[in-house]
Each structure stands twice: as C-alpha cells, then as structure tokens.
Amino acid sequence: MAAVRLVAPTLLLTAAAASCSSPQNVLDPHGPAAMRIEELWWVLFVMGVTVSIVVAALLLLAIRRGRQRERGTQGREINGHYLVSIGAGLITPAVIFALAIYSYVIGAGVYPPVDEDAGALTVEVTGHQFWWEVRYPQYDLVSANEVVIPVGRRVRFLVTSRDVIHSFWVPQLQGKIDMIPGHTTRQWLQADEPGRYRGQCAEFCGASHALMALWVFAVPEEEFGAWLDARRQPALEPADPDVREGRAVFVAAECHLCHATRGVARPEALGDAGPDLTHLATRETLAAGTLPNTRGNLTAWISDPERIKPGARMPPTVFPPDQLRALLDYLQSLR
Ligand SMILES: [Cu+2]
Fold first, then answer.
1. So what's the pLDDT on residue 6?
2. Which of 148, 46, 160 minimizes the C-alpha distance to 99?
3. From ligand 1's centre to the CA of 198, what distance in Å?
4. N or C: which end of the chain has fewer CB within 10 A?
C-alpha cells in the first residue's frame, strides 16, 4: 500500500535517529527538561504521521473513485458534506488547539521561572565569536568551553553574549536559549546521570559558528567539590627554568593581553579577549571543542588559528623552535 511506502522510511529514519548514541541526541535525554522535550517530540511526531496516513488514504480513495467513474463502475455516491464539516470544522481545530495547549504546558515545565535565589549554584556563560566564557561567580572561578556541574542538582545558568547573538544548547539536558548582547537570559539545567554532554551554538554567529561547541560534564557531588577546590587554585610562578622561560615567551609575545592566567606570577595575565588559560592543560579540547588538547594541536593552533578556525579572533604567531618548545612546556604546565 502506498501509505505504508510513504510512512515506512520516515519511521525507519526516526528509529535510526532514536537509537544512535550521538552525544547531541534530543531523543536520548539525560535530564528532566530534556525528557519533557523528548515527550513533546514523540507526541508531535505521532500526530504528524497520523495526519500523513489520513491524507494519503483520502488521496488513494479519490484516485480509486476517479478510475471507477472513468470505467463507469462507480458505486453509490456518498454525500460527504457532513463528514467534511465535522472533520475539518470541528475535530481538526479541536485537536490542533489541544496540541497547542499541551506544548505550552510542556514549555512552561521546561523553562520554569529562574528566581534570584542566591543559594542556587550559578554558572554564567558568555558567548564570544567563537568560544564560551564560563564563570562560577560564587566561587570566583573562570574557565572556558567546558562546564562542570554536580549530578542531580538544579543549576542556574545566566547566559549572555559579548558580541553577536549566540544560542546555548545542550540537547541532552535542556532546550536551547538565546545569548543576547546586553541582556541576561536565565534557565535551569539539570543532569540526572553522570556523563559528558555536548553542547553547540545554535544561532548562526559567523564563519566558525559550526566550530563553536562546548562540553558539560556532570559529576557526583564529592567530585564536583574537589574540582572546584582544584580549579580555584591560582597559576603559580613556575619552578622549572624551561617552564619559566616559556612564561617569558608568553608575555613577550603578548599572549597575556588576550588570555588570563590568574595567579601569583608577575606580570599577572588578565586579558579577557580570549579564553582564560589558568587551567588550560586540564581541558580536553582546544578552540571550543574543535581539536583534542594535545601538544601537536597546540602548535598548529598557535601558528595558524585561521587555518583551523576561519574567522577566529586570534592572530597567528610563529616562534623559533626553542621558544616554541618552552611556550608549549609552559602551556602544558597550566593544570
Ligand atoms: Cu555562536
């Protein structure tokens, strides 16, 4: 039957999407908000499939009747006006209205009001072309491109942007929310299971929009406490002479004008045009999820960011080999 032929591929595709374990799968939710969004998705999907089947069936019926008329074998004429009025005039609008209310209720549950409650753990995420600034204001902690949250706790996210409109979206945990310059948007995020969840900028923001990803790590409460303690430590004056030399290269090349390495070393680097590098070596990726954080990738990134990330707001710098080695030693010491 044609209707089956029409619907089967859609169902197959959906089943494939639902079963695939992509780290950004809306159909594989790991938090209360994402679960409601998934539920809404399935309800609308089933309604959509039902409408497709009904329309396909009516179309087939009309074709059959047309053929019968041509052959003169047409049976009794049905007066369809009643059916059409009741179906199109009453049932369809009622169903659409019910669905509208239902999706409104889901929306209200997904984005409940976020109060000023100072006690709630707060994370501030600021979008930049093309990376994420991450702050924990209650702990005086700054990071970039990776967010760590405790499992099972509702965390308050305050998001904004430094330049253009971005959108903060971690599909397995919560719906997307715009990051608007000059305006702070609030939302709750909660992960019910420990794990790593990939997020992605969901509003076109320039050439490397697609390379603007972030990771959210949900960890047990004790691990979160330990993480906070470790990340609040400042970067120390390096003891190793090589690393100390690398720090001098970092300052001489003016990396510190854009990148902060908060700590006791002087001059203190406080630049904020680029990601905070105080704990760079603990991050898994470079340049907002674009590259694994390895020595080779650090070299490639520093010598030519534009080749890796078109439009990236960092100038290329080429160093003589010994300076480069020292700089890499320094960057890799930032734990
Ligand atoms: Cu963006």
1. 54
2. 46
3. 14
4. N
Distance CA 39, CA 15 (A): 15
**Cα 220 to averaged position of ligand 1 atoms, centre (Å):** 29
Length of the chain, in residues: 335
**What is the pTM for the complete model shown?**
0.86
Rounded Cα–Cα distance for residues 322 and 335 (Å): 22
Say how many C-beta atoms besides its own lie within 10 A of residue 241's C-beta: 9
Please name which of 167, 218, 207, 198 lies closest in space to residue 307, comparing C-alpha atoms: 207
Higher pLDDT, 15 or 282: 282
Per-residue confidence (pLDDT) for residue 179, from 0 to 100: 97
Q: How many alpha carbons lie under 13 Å from residue 254 in its C-beta half-sphere? A: 6
Per-residue pLDDT, 155: 94
Cα of 176 from ligand 1 centre, angstroms: 12
Q: Measured in angstroms, how far is the CA atom of residue 88 from the centroid of ligand 1? A: 43
Ligand 1 centre and the CA of 63: distance in Å? 50
Please, what are the domains in the chain? 2-110 (no CATH), 122-231 (2.60.40.420), 241-333 (2.60.40.420)
Q: What percent of the chain has pLDDT over 70?
A: 91
